[in-house]
Write a structure and sequence with these properties.
296 residues; alpha/beta; six-stranded mixed sheet; two-stranded antiparallel sheet; elongated
């Protein structure tokens, strides 16, 4: 039987950059790698990253609904780029999340006393596991436009959806998307991503990766236990219900069978047949037949 260590080890082997655990370990304190990924996604080869943080928490004191960015990067020229790994590809969830995270990014960027002219350009990137728009494009850039004229308005905000299901590898972005889906470092196109994945999954950082995955594993197990309790309760109730239902059916069958026997015995008594013969034919006892005779 596999031990917990074996299970965690197998989970680590299967992790892709798309998965939050490996994503965090790969990009933590690695500004060159962060810079590389944003350059590829945004097609901005001159982009320069000055600071990057994984699991970057923004405290929203207005409504006490905080946000945690998977990757928050400050760029030169007053730019903020945010990368979110989004496994749930339902637009009904994705669109509100995009807008909320964009708002949090502005809240985090504008310091007290600063003028609105100092607001940075913010790009929020959602790397989705599925093609949420269904157009088979490597990425979708959402901007502001005037509805009456269709004219695109250049604002401080840009939202980009990277299609994690895109399979063509004839472009730089296509190769990057391909690499984010792989769990085997040998299958990656880019040397820097390949080397970092090897280091995290099979090198000196594997122990940290397994510790991190173990904690996530136990956290997920705890959440699943809570979620499954109600489900198991329903299953047990259904099992008990089926058992009781079977018992009730048998009771009803016995009651019906007994009623039929009594009716048959009463008819035979009316015809003055011998009590022993009635008892034998109806499977009632002699005492029961006598009791029926007395009540006629």
């Amino acid at each position: 039987m596999p031990t917990n260590y074996d299970k965690i080890s197998t989970l680590v082997d299967r992790l892709r950059i798309l998965d939050s655990g490996l994503f965090q370990m790969m990009f933590h304190d690695d500004i060159p790698l962060v810079e590389f990924v944003f350059r590829m996604i945004l097609d901005e080869p001159d982009l320069v990253c000055v600071d990057a943080k994984v699991e970057y928490r923004v405290i929203n004191s207005l409504k006490e609904h905080d946000g945690v960015f998977d990757l928050h990067a400050a760029m030169k020229e007053n730019k903020i780029d945010i990368l979110e790994m989004q496994r749930n590809g339902r637009l009904v969830i994705l669109f509100p999340r995009m807008e909320f995270y964009a708002a949090l990014a502005f809240i985090a960027a504008l310091n007290k006393g600063a003028s609105y002219e100092q607001i940075p350009d913010v790009t929020v990137i959602f790397f989705t596991e599925t093609d949420v728009f269904g157009k088979n494009l490597p990425k979708y850039t959402l901007g502001r436009s005037i509805l009456e004229t269709g004219e695109v308005v250049d604002t401080y905000l840009k939202i980009v959806c990277v299609n994690g299901a895109y399979e063509k590898t004839d472009t730089a972005l296509g190769k990057l998307i391909h690499d984010f889906r792989q769990c085997n470092p040998n299958q990656l196109f880019h040397d820097n991503l390949r080397n970092k994945m090897r280091q995290v999954k099979y090198g000196k950082e594997r122990k940290s990766m397994m510790t991190f995955t173990d904690s996530v594993w136990e956290e997920v197990r705890a959440e699943m236990r809570v979620e499954l309790r109600d489900e198991v309760k329903r299953e047990v109730k259904n099992e008990i219900r089926d058992e009781v239902k079977s018992e009730v059916k048998n009771e009803i069958r016995d009651e019906i069978s007994q009623a039929v026997k009594i009716q048959l015995a009463q008819k035979m008594l009316a015809r003055n047949l011998p009590l022993a013969e009635i008892a034998e034919d109806t499977e009632l006892s002699i005492e029961q037949v006598r009791a029926l005779q007395q009540n006629l």
